[in-house]
Amino acid sequence: MTADIDIDALTRSQAQQELGRLADLLGRADAAYHRDDDPIMSDADYDALKRRNAAIEARFPDLKRNDSPSDRVGATPAEAFEKVTHARRMMSLSNVFSPQEVRDFDESVRKYLGLGADAPLDYTAEPKIDGLSLSLRYEHGRLVQAATRGDGTVGEDVTRNARTIDDIPTRLDDAPEVLEVRGEVYMGHADFARLNDRQKAAGDKAFANPRNAAAGSLRQLDPRVTQARPLRFFAYGWGEISTQLADTQYQSLRALAGLGFVINDLTQLCNGPEALLAHYADIEAARATLGYDIDGVVYKVDDLALQARLGFRSTTPRWATAHKFPAELAWTRLEAIDIQVGRTGALSPVARLHPVTVGGVVVSNATLHNEDYIAGRDSSGAPIREGRDIREGDWVQVYRAGDVIPKIADVDLSRRPADAAPYAFPDTCPECGSTAIREEGDSVRRCTGGLICPAQAVEKLKHFVSRAAFDIEGLGAKQVEQFYRDGWISEPADIFTLEKNYGPGQPRQLKNREGWGEKSADNLISAIDARRAIPLSRLLFALGIRHVGEETARTLARHYGTWEAFIAAIDAAAAQEGPEWDELLAIDGIGKVLARSLVTSFSQPAERASIDRLVAHLDVQPEEAHAPADSPLAGKTVVFTGTLDRMTRAEAKDRAEALGAKVSGSVSAKTDLLVAGPGAGSKAKKATELGVEVIDEDGWLALLGQP
Ligand code: IVH
Asked: Which residues contact 478 (CB under 8 A, 6 or more apart)?
């Protein structure tokens, strides 16, 4: 048999035959291992066959097969993870830090649901595991996909890696047909210490903390590496599910445990905020002895029907919050204060610190907020830190709460160097030299350079390509900086002429740049082309207009529907201070400051010209109606007035929006429907005058299909 023949002795035809045999055998081994989770050979045998295959190919390079195992994923590490769109978005959690904020959370839940302070309301309280979240999809009881959170909408396919984790079952008995289990991948303290010892012994880099080690281990392109890492998994929730597991959070977790998942045994049912706080204290006391990192306690409304009513804000559920442990503190020397210029021209002071470890992470930069904060006063002029100012050379106290940017809490005056001078906040932009002014009522000083300021231009571009904006694969902050520096891209529109100006046939070409090649250049151009069609809300967010965040961009996009309608309304508003402003301001969630910011941005000639150049390259897509197609409210403008008994105003608004309606604060000729509860006054009158349909609460509930 050719398999036994020494490679040096193989004839050409024997080699060809042997390569065929190896391709077949290794292909079957891959499928058994990765697809069926049922290996047909040991790792050592597999590796030996791979080596044999590679050695034969090295001797007869022209015999290498198109389907050569050497090129196959699953054996050799893949180049990158496949992207996975989550069937249900993976949300994050809002945070609270104090007992009062926990009580406020409970109050806001009750208020939304219209429950009195004394009505019973159960929550589950469970440790917040400090790892990384993972979504496991089971179909007919078989694990078919594991995906990281990513940006919440699109994550990375780490199925093969997840299969190597002991706590993750690959088969389930009696599970719903479709079940997505969500939970946290983490590494225990002892395993972390052993892994770092191994890393060091092998001359590899040690991990800073268990969380990094877990993330680094899960996101390995070669599943064999993941397999060698001691990862664990706690289940805490679910995504898509064909049949609900139970009626409550707590019982659903129990059901997950019944299916073979590990759930955290510190999970407890608590009646009201005081019980939550008591359990928080217990968990905090046990924290050091758990053997794994937690960074707080998660509270969730237990009743799933109530969870459904509470629903979600843009990225977080209303029915849950994370009560974080107090921030970690450390003292270090403030070496310098630097000024960074943001995309809206804000001059932000950054503390450059002598590196110090705060809660397992090395920190060398922290935010100093603004000039008042450095001077020791708040925005109203009242003293903070008892009026102590912060100077270069000072010893300062750094803190980190959760994963937010580290901050400076305090300063030690007894260690202040004798020659330390009060910090003089610049009144010109350090990047472009333009005057930096502070408008009345603004806590921030801003560069007035606009588009001539390179820092603003670059930051605007970085924002433009960021994840929630255009999100162009292969064009991140680093690339944008380089292209800007070299004059290839100076405004968003230039991204869309990159191929024309730096593509095939041009004197300077993308593929010839350092770090680029034919393939990566092609990929970037395709990624850019793929983004020419862009949803209106993303475009509005991407423009980086002050005060226009993701949520506002969505609100505007939903209200106006198309770019043309939006721009016409803003232009009309700019032309007159009259009724058009009323229309803008009538949009629920749009206030005066925001309206002014919008109108100003679009009426500045240079900025407007830049936006128009951009839009000329785009196919702006009307906001996707995420309402069911048969919704009676799709595209309708609804106004609520008077009191509703069975539902709070906030809930009514969310329900209306979920059904594709726009909710407005005032009645006009554009209103389609007025829902009037008892006590309705002038709005009901106006609606009748205008011939707008008016219904009462029963009519409203009937529309929702709620008896
Ligand atoms: S629930 C829709 N429960 O914390 C609710 N999250 O800050 C989604 N986490 O991305 C999260 N332990 O990775 C939940 N017991 C727990 C958790 C937990 C850790 C993580 C999770 C999430 C992040 C949110």
From this structure: none
CA distance linking residue 313 with residue 317, whole number of Å: 6
d(CA 276, ligand 1 centre) in Å: 17
CA of 249 to the centre of ligand 1 (A): 14
**Average pLDDT of adjacent 10-residue blocks, the chain of 707 residues:** 76 91 87 63 78 88 84 52 91 93 97 94 97 96 95 91 96 96 97 94 86 92 91 97 97 98 98 97 94 96 96 90 89 96 94 88 91 92 94 94 80 96 96 92 90 93 94 94 95 96 94 92 96 96 93 90 93 76 81 88 91 96 71 87 83 85 87 89 90 92 80
- Residues annotated as catalytic are 128
Q: Which atom of ligand 1 is nearest to the CA of 128?
A: 12
Pocket test for ligand 1, best of 88, 89, 105, 129 (most atoms within 8 A of CB): 129
**Which of 425, 464, 469 is closest to 444 using CA atoms?**
425
**Residue nearest atom 11 of ligand 1, based on CA coordinates:** 92
Helices (H), 31-72: 43-59
Whole-angstrom Cα distance, residue 514 to residue 482?
A: 11
Full-model pTM: 0.64
Residue 643 Cβ contacting ligand 1 at under 6 Å: no
| Nearest residue by C-alpha to atom 12 in ligand 1 | 128
Contacts for 34-43: CB closer than 8 Å, 24+ residues apart: 34/74, 34/160, 34/163, 34/223, 37/143, 37/163, 37/170, 43/224
State which H helix or E strand residue 366 sits in.
strand 361-367
* Helix ranges, 411-476 (H): 454-465
Q: How far apart are CA 53 and CA 128, in angstroms?
A: 47
Q: Is 318 in the pocket of ligand 1 (CB under 6 A)?
A: no
Q: Is the C-beta atom of 129 inside 6 A of ligand 1?
A: yes
Tokens encoding 484: 């800007």
Helix (H) or strand (E) holding 452: none
CB atoms within 10 A of CB 589: 14
Buried b (16+ CB within 10 A) or exposed e, 385-410: beebbbbbebbbbbbbbbeeebbbeb
Cβ proximity of 525 and 498 under 8 Å: yes
SS3 666: coil
Q: Which of 274, 233, 275, 273 is nearest to 256 (CA)?
A: 233
Identify the structural domains of the chain with CATH numbers, from first to last: 2-71 (1.10.287.610), 83-324 (3.30.470.30), 465-495+497-531 (1.10.150.20), 535-621 (1.10.150.20), 637-703 (3.40.50.10190)
State the Cα angle at 201 between 198 and 207, rounded to 5°.
55
Distance from residue 93's CA to the centre of ligand 1 (Å): 7
For the sheet containing 142-148, what is the strand order?
Answer: 142-148, 132-139, 178-186, 232-241
Q: Is the CB of 320 under 6 A from ligand 1?
A: yes
Q: What is the dihedral of CA 236, 240, 243, 244, to 10 degrees?
A: 30
Check if the beta carbon of residue 218 is closer than 8 Å to that of residue 154: no
- Show Cβ contacts of residue 507 under 8 Å, excluding neighbours closer than 6 positions: none
